[in-house]
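Researcher: I'm preparing a figure for a lab meeting and need a structural model of a single chain. I don't have an experimental structure, so a prediction will have to do for now. The sequence is pasted below. Please return the structure as C-alpha cells so I can convert it later.
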Amino acid sequence: MTLWIILLILAVAMGGTGMAVAGMTLASPWIGVGIGLLLATMTFPAFLPVWRKITANGKIWVCAICQAVMIGSLGFMLTFGLNYWLADDSSLQTVDAHVISKFQQEHRKTRRAGRRYVPTGEVWHSYHVTLELPDGRRKNREVKVSEYISLRTGSKMRIGVGKGLFGMDIVKPVNKSQNKSYRDSH
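Model: Understood. Here is the structure written out cell by cell.
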C-alpha cells in the first residue's frame, strides 16, 4: 500500500511539473501527452512483469493503466522539461509582445475540516494578460497585481523567446527593470 501512495505522489508531481513547464512553452500540451503515451506504449512489454508484481494482479488492463499513468507522466514531464531546461540561451531573443487583453480569475479559499475541505467564502484573484507575439501567436501569462495595474490593453511588454532543446519555442522572463523602463519610455 505504501508503494502505491509513493507511485501516485510521484505521478502527480511529474504531471504537475510537466504542466508548469508546458506553460512556459509556445507549443500545445497535447504534444507532450502524445509523446508520453507513445513512450508508455513502446515500453509496456518491458514493464509488464514489473506491473504484474507491483499490482499482484495478472490483469493486463490494470497494468496498462499503471503504465500509462506513470510512464506517460514521465514522458510528458521530460518532453517539456528537457526542452525548457536544456534550451540554448544564445537563441534567446527579446521581443515586444502586445497586450491584447487583461483578465482576472476569481478563486475561493478553502480550509480543512476533518477529512474534507470546506469553502470559507473568502475570495482571491489571480491576474492574467494575453500577449500577442510579433509572429501572431498568443500566450496567456499570469502577472503580479502591480504589473497588471500598470499594463494597458494595446501596450507593449518585453519577453524573451528562444528555441528549446527539441525546437519548441520557450518563453523566459526578461529583467524586470528593463521591462519597466521600456514601458515608461513608450
